[in-house]
Each structure stands twice: as structure tokens, then as C-alpha cells.
Amino acid sequence: MTTGAGTPPRETQPTDPSGPEPKTPVRDRSGGKQLTRAQRDARAGRLLLSPTLLVVLVVVVVPIVWSILLAFQDLRLIDLRRRGLFGEFSLENIADVFTSSGFWEGLRTTLLFSVVGTIGSIGIGLAAALALRKPFRGRTFVRASMLLPYVAPVVAVAFVWQTMLSPQFGIVNHVGREWLGWDDPIAFLSQRSADVSLFGLQVSVPVALLTVMAFEAWRYFPFAFLFLTARLQAVPGELEEAATVDGATPTQRFRHVLLPQLLPVIALLSVLRFIFTFNEFDDIFLLTGGAAGTEVVSVRVYNLLTDRGDIGGAAAQALVLALVLVVFLIVYFKFFAKRVEEV
Amino acid sequence: MTQETLVEPTGSSTAPAPRRWNRDLVETRVLGVLRWVVIVVLVLATVFPFYYMVVLSLRSLDEVLQRPGLLWPAELDFTTYVEVLASAASGGQGFLVFLRNSAVIALLTVAVTLVVAIPGSYAISRLHFRGRRQVSALFLAVYLFPAILLAVPLFVFFSAIGLRGSIVGLLVVYVAQTVPISIYMLRNYFETVPVSLEEAAAMDGATRRQIILKVSLPLAMPAVVSNALYVFMIAWNEFLFALLFLAEDRERWTVSLGLSQLAGSIEIPTTVLMAGSVLLTIPIVIIFFFTERLLVEGLTAGAEKG
């Protein structure tokens, strides 16, 4: 799940409807015991929250713990019925993860994909937010259409991209050959690398990886656009007016007035987008299936699980992926804690 | 950014006499043009793929192969939609069944998520109890964790107990994935409901349950609706868990899963599947355009504060 509100929950003090006299003992109807209002509230709170907690514990926390156990077992899908859920424990899977070349390759791809995807989506989002800042006729429509890639079903948009980029009848290759003078169609999604001469230098370009990065930036720039637009609207107009009066040019106003205001949001977006891109599975799986040098770790985990039925290996890879992510989460919480102190 | 944009040719009535060609003027002019370039490019980049999707769904494959550059249907060909919707038994692709499956799963997810998340978010926003902060942190962590890490044990577990392939299993997973975000969206809203209203109800002798149902919930209705739509969109669009749980039984495929499973096949013309992706996308686009403001407000609540 890669959608949603990025700002972390605000920690506000809960407000108690019975605020003024919280200690007044009230007769509890169920038990007849003397309970304070605060105690009854606490009890009600736990009760109201328990269904949520139950679902999250059963479907999220328990599986994560179990996945740690699985990572240390040599378990295959075909053995499942016979052997039950718990087998002998060994470090073999973890060792395999670190010694297999595929994992390091996958981790490198994942990092590259995440960094470029994050920068791309935030960069485009920023350009869009700035361009749509001043009102113009049709802005409402333009703004809504900016969000289309983000809300549309990923399977549908990935399929359209595949079709548009198709070497046989895709519109991109058609335009490329008719108008841009390409000699041969480019297999955007299945070609690992291509040599491009740039100022007389032969450079090898990872074609498929760049294509999925472009898709990622395209699909998620609306997320950055939304948050940056919301922040831009909150920038007080006087700041820029004052700068204009002082003779600041538009780029100077952006650099010295707007950018400092936007930086906290950009920093937050960078962390969030990085995490989500790092976890990304759908986009790459649907576009290339992990072929042609685009196999990020999560796609690798899926392939291990379903193609080879190697449960232990898949769990171990997923676990290492999550651990790498935890490092980023710690950075995130540190960053967030700092923000709260500032406010 | 711009003092004199191209849209306002008559903007300044007190047009200044010959200006000096200074940096400010150059930047203003250049950025004024650049702004429109950015807007046009972005609109093309975001809208064109969807336009292309619709056009291709209305053409026959032969015609597309002959004239790949044609950007409008030569003649409207709705047979693709007939073929994609018809059941597999009658020679179609069975998307009608997939649409039904998707709708059932998405609606059930919305219902269960709301039943679970409304009390939960109320508790987090209004009631003080130990462990409240930790619960919030847990939900945030759930939201940020890689789905693939959950996929392995859930796949194994549901395989072992025979729930894989059942809609109930998928439903539970969807609810767990959408509850944290729902709690976040709803609790922000509950916090804006004035405490004094609840106090007044409490003075009149209303119980906690009555306060929630009669006072807070009706006031939070906009947030509940936008959250319900958002959850619907997540469940409708979801792919990974549908793939893991339902892939084996074609009768249970969702639209997303069906489209992805059939996309690799050479026998099915791309234009027929394009009709399938139009059917998959349309409900979301309709919901989105009718409720854009509501959704955006719900999502970016708190973003202004950075």
C-alpha cells in the first residue's frame, strides 16, 4: 500500500469532555464499583480500540514475528502440509542472502531505483506545484488531472505504459521512428542496456531500469504535488510582497523566501517517498516482472516464493529488506522528533 | 512568480513607460513562458495515457497494427467491450465476474474498515489511556513497512489453513492495511469537533455511546465519507495480495488481477484488454472527480503545518 497521508500523526493531548472535574467519582453502571471519570474513559478507550488492535496484531504483527522465524528455517512450499509450520532452525537462509550475488545486485537496483524515483517524483511535483500556483482559467481541471496517475489503478496504467512503449505498435516507438529519426524501435521494458554516444563518449544506459524509474516518477509526482501545493497555500503573501518591494527577482524570491518555507515538507516527502519506493513491488512486477536488470528486492522475494517455493529464502530476503528500511525509519523518527521540538 | 502573465494582456493599466531590460524583467518573462510549458507538458503526460487507453479500446487490433500512429478511432468498435465482459464460457474474458468480485471485496473492505476504525479513531483522539501513543506509533510503522514482508508469512499461513483463495482471507488483509490510514484520517477530524458539544451532551446525561453516535459521528460525516471512498479506491486498486491469494481460481479474480494475468497472453488482442483497463479505471476516475476536494483535504490534513 503506497498511498496516503504522509504526515505523521500529530501527538495532541486528548481532550476529555468531562475536563473540569475529572476526578469526580461516578457510579459505574456495569459493576457498581466507584470509578473516576478518567478511569472509565481509559476503559472505554481500550475497548473502542481493541478491534483495531486485534486486526493489526493478527494480520501484521504476528506475521512479521513469524516471518522472522521462517527466515531461520529451511522450509519449502511443497513440504508445508507434511512438516507443519515449525521446522529446525538454521542460519543457512541468512547466509545465503548475503552470499548470493542476486541479493546484492537486487539491493543495488533497489537503492538506485529509490533514489532516482524519489528525486524524480519530488522534482516534478515541485515544478507542478509552482506552475499551478497562480490561478488561471481551467486550473481546477488541470489540478485534478495532475492527480490521475496517482489514483488510477496501477495495473491499468502499467498496462497502458507497456502498450505505449511496445516495439511493435506502441505510439512512442512510432513517433520516435517517424519524427525523431530512430533507426530501430527501442524495447524500453526488455532491453537491459544500450550504448549511447554522448559528445563522442560511449555510455552504457540501463534502458529498462530508467523506464521503470520514469514510470515511478510519473505515478508518484502527484503525491509530492499535493503536499507542496498545500504548503504553498499556507505561505503568507506578505513575505513575497516584502521581498518584491526590496527588489528581489523571481528566482531570488524562490530561493530565499519560498524554498526555506518548503524545505521541511520536501525533507518529509523525501523520507516518505524513499520508503515507499524502496518497498515498491507492483510497478516493477507489472512492467517488467523483474527482467532486464530491474529486479528489486521485493520482486525477487516474490519470485523466490512463487517460482521456487523457497519460503525460508524469501522470508530471509524480505527480512533483510525490512531491516535496511528500519534504519531509514529510525532516521525518520529522529527527523520527526526534531520537527516537534521546533514547533 | 509573474507580474505580467500572458493571460492578462491588459493587466496593468498604468503600464510603465519603457522599462530597462533588467534581470527582474528577463526572469519574469522567461518564467512566465516556462510556466505554460510546464503546464502543457504535465497535462499531456498525465492525460494522454488515459486518452490512449480509451482510443485503443475502441479500435480493432489489425487496424492498430496497420496504423499505430492514429490517435483517434477510425470507426468506433465496441466489440472489444462485448468480448471482454462476456463470460469465458461464451468466448469472452469474463470481466463482468471480475467487476463483481472487485466491487464485493472493495465494499466489504469499506464496511469492515469503518466499523473497526471509527471507534478506534475516536478513542485515540478523545480518550486518555495508557499505551495510546504506542498504538499510534505502531500504526505508523504498519503503514511504512514493506508489504512484501507480510506477504510471505500470510501466503504460507493461508496456504496451511486452506484460506488461500477465499475472499475472507483477502478481506482481513485489506482491512488490516487500510485501518491505520483510516484511523489517521478520522482522528484528525474528530479532533476538530468542539469538545464543548460533547460536554453539553454529557451534561444532559448522554452516555459515551450516545455521544459518539449522536454528536461526534454526524459531525465527522465528511471525513467518514472521504475515508470510505479512499478505502474503496485502495481495495479496488490493490494488486499484490489479490495475486498471492486468488491467482489460482479464475472465478475469483478481481479486475486488477484478471487484467494482469491476461496481459501476458498472446491470444487475447491488446485492444480487448484495453477495454478491460478502461472498465477497471472508470469507477476510480468517476469517484475521484466527484470527490476530489474532499479526498485532497482528508489526505493533506496537517500538511500545511509541515
From TrEMBL, chain A:
It is found in: Cell membrane. The chain crosses the membrane at residues 47-72, 111-132, 144-164, 199-221, 257-276, 311-333. It is a multi-pass membrane protein. Residues 1-37 are annotated as: Disordered. This is Sugar ABC transporter permease. Residues 107-332 form the ABC transmembrane type-1 domain. Residues 1-16 have a biased composition (Polar residues). Pfam families: BPD_transp_1. Belongs to the binding-protein-dependent transport system permease family. Keywords: Cell membrane, Membrane, Transmembrane, Transmembrane helix, Transport.
UniProtKB/TrEMBL annotation, chain B:
It is found in: Cell membrane. The chain crosses the membrane at residues 33-54, 103-125, 137-161, 167-186, 219-246, 266-290. It comes from the Bacteria. Belongs to the binding-protein-dependent transport system permease family. Residues 99-291 form the ABC transmembrane type-1 domain. Keywords: Cell membrane, Membrane, Transmembrane, Transmembrane helix, Transport. It comes from Pseudonocardia humida. This is Carbohydrate ABC transporter permease. InterPro entries: BP-dep_ABC_trans_perm, MetI-like, MetI-like_sf. SUPFAM superfamilies: MetI-like (SSF161098). PROSITE patterns: ABC_TM1. It is a multi-pass membrane protein. The lineage of its organism: Bacteria, Bacillati, Actinomycetota, Actinomycetes, Pseudonocardiales.
